[in-house]
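Open question from group meeting: does this chain pack into something compact, or does most of it stay loose? Before anyone orders reagents, we agreed to write out a predicted structure and look at it together. Recording both the input and the output here so the notebook holds the full record.
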Amino acid sequence: IKKLRKFFRVNKPEIVISFIFQTNILSIISLLFLKSKLIVSERNNPYYQKGNFVWNNLRKFLYFFCDFIVVNNNFAFDYFSSLYNKKVKIINNPLVIPKIKEKRKKTILVVSRLEKQKAIDLILVAYSKLILIKKDWELCIVGIGNSEKELKKLSKKLNISTNVKWLGQQKETNLFFSNSSIFCLPSEYEGTSNSLLEALSYNMECLVSSSAVSKKDFL
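Structure tokens returned:
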């Protein structure tokens, strides 16, 4: 907070835009009593987002001090509008419709941060059962995160480490979407998932949890 506040005081930005729960809170504290305006962005479904008692209550209180709240889904809009009224605005995630390939590989694709929220472990367990009867299918995981080591250990324990491709962080994901057949996202909670929107734009078969999509968001 001291480093952020020092940066803001020296550079005196007219507007600061902050993303993600905890970062938003730190940004608000760092900008208290300074002249810069602050826009915070929420990307998840706050009804299901699990945080500890302190962080949750800090958000409820400190969001009164930001100038605007931007969300990308109707769940978040309903939640924050009930608390902060006119300070909330939906800006939908952008989407470019690509050219679609007819021939695809027998690949199950995951494009996600490797965090507990995304429940990638469920995919690994399901895939370990799938390849017992569908041995020609592979699993490709694009992304990095705090759960990466734990998930790789699980893949070894399930005897599927040679069948899973860990592709790390990628600047361009177009080829993965265009070449794969199935997209998976079993998240515990989501806002509006960019990777799901991309998979849908590539006309992929999508297997996701009920938290990953709302019919209302697509009407």
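Observations to bring back to the group:
Residues 102 and 185 are 23 Å apart (CA to CA).
The radius of gyration is 20 Å.
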